[in-house]
Amino acid sequence: MEKRNDRQNCVPDSPIRTKHFLDSIRYAFKGTGYAFKTERNFKIYIGIAIVFFIINLIVGVSLAGHIAFFICALGAFSAEMINTAIEHICNYLTTDLNEAIRRAKDLGAAAVLMWGFAFFPLEGVLLWLALSN
Q: DSSP string spanning the chain?
């Protein structure tokens, strides 16, 4: 049996590979800013989250409710950014109609939808609980 070189399994060095943790954080903020500047749906999700957060403060949602709210909201934001990354990579690879590319884009969009299925019912329950007290 042939012994494999461990170097073959490593990610190759890249000119954009970060050397420091703080660089990674800075790049993450750049990515978030890019999503906010360029992605209409991301702006809509941010706007919806801000409105619901203010409503939650007004009606007195519990601390546990706020935590659940932030988990779902940040999950939706993350899924939207991952979906955007998938779309950019797919568009870079080809502009031709391609079944595999279509599936990848559809799956990315489905991830955002799943977080929406968590976020909106959760918000409804939070409001119902806060208003019924």
A: -PPPPGGGGSPPP-TT--SSHHHHHHHHHHHHHHHHHH-HHHHHHHHHHHHHHHHHHHHT--HHHHHHHHHHHHHHHHHHHHHHHHHHHHHHH-SS--HHHHHHHHHHHHHHHHHHHHHHHHHHHHHHHHHH-
